[in-house]
Each structure stands twice: as structure tokens, then as C-alpha cells.
Design a protein that fits this description.
Layout (H helix, E strand, L loop, with lengths): L9 H17 L10 H13 L3 H18 L5 H17 L6 H23 L4 H18 L3
Helix pairs in contact: 1-3, 2-3, 2-5, 2-6, 4-5, 5-6
């Protein structure tokens, strides 16, 4: 039986946009915040797969707020997500049989790409690595409820 995803409702996508954007605007005052970028990445994949292009607009806007608050170039997270969707997902889709394990690996690939983006834009430090690992664990926890 197919499980209905929370990403299929445009109002949920809009509320995700408001919540994640608000958090990423307020939180970087004290520390680097890329909160819930993996969760937004999963919503991006779902909207592209099921062709919800109006919801995809809010997801891209959420990525833009995350990029602005984190100091990344605008459009890099969207391009990274699209690259993963086009080139990496077809390659690894058939190797993994468990859906949860598949989503965990996709999220890990996304955060590895985010780590590379931060590495190219700024210097490497321990707080950056700990924030990315903490956000990865938080997103895995959230994705398990999808």
C-alpha cells in the first residue's frame, strides 16, 4: 500500500518554507545554520518526481533562504539537488532495496555535497563539521517519519 507523503500537499510545502526560512534567518546570528536542508532536499526530489512544479518554487525559495543565511552562493543547493537527481539517483536506485536506507544514503550524499560547497567557500573548522553531522542526524530523524 502506498503511503501518502506530506510533500504532496502544497500547504505543507508552504508551511515548510515559512518555518525553515524563519529559522534560517534567525539562527545564524549565533552559529552556522543549515537546519533542515536535507529535509528540503527530500521535498525537492518528491516534487520533481511527481511534477509538482508550483510547490517546487517554494522549495527553491527555501534553498535560497538557506544559502543566504549560510553564506553560500545563490542557487548552489538547487543545482546540487538537481545534479543528484539527474546523475546519482538513477545509478544508486537499483542497488538499494530498502526505502529508508535509500533515503539515508541520498541524504548523506546531499550533505557531503553541502560539505564540499562550504569547503570551497570558507575555511574548514570543527564547528562546521559538527553542525553538518548534527543536521544530518536531525534530518535522518525527520525523514524516518515521512
Amino acid at each position: 500500500m502506498n503511503k501518502i507523503s506530506i510533500f504532496s500537499n502544497p500547504m505543507n510545502i508552504f508551511f515548510m518554507f515559512v518555518i525553515v526560512s524563519g529559522i534560517n534567518i534567525l539562527m545564524p546570528v549565533h552559529f552556522i545554520s543549515i537546519l533542515m536542508a536535507g529535509f528540503v532536499f527530500m521535498a525537492f526530489l518528491y516534487c520533481i518526481q511527481y511534477k509538482y512544479y508550483y510547490s517546487l518554487f517554494f522549495i527553491i525559495m527555501t534553498f535560497i533562504f538557506i544559502e543566504i543565511s549560510s553564506g553560500l552562493n545563490i542557487g548552489t543547493l538547487s543545482l546540487l539537488s538537481f545534479f543528484i537527481y539527474l546523475f546519482l539517483i538513477p545509478r544508486i536506485k537499483y542497488f538499494l532495496s530498502s526505502k529508508i536506507f535509500y533515503l539515508v544514503i541520498l541524504n548523506m550524499i546531499f550533505y557531503f555535497g553541502v560539505f564540499i560547497l562550504f569547503l570551497m567557500n570558507s575555511e574548514m573548522n570543527q564547528t562546521l563539521v559538527s553542525k553538518i553531522i548534527l543536521n544530518y542526524i536531525l534530518d535522518i530523524f525527520l525523514i524516518s517519519f515521512i
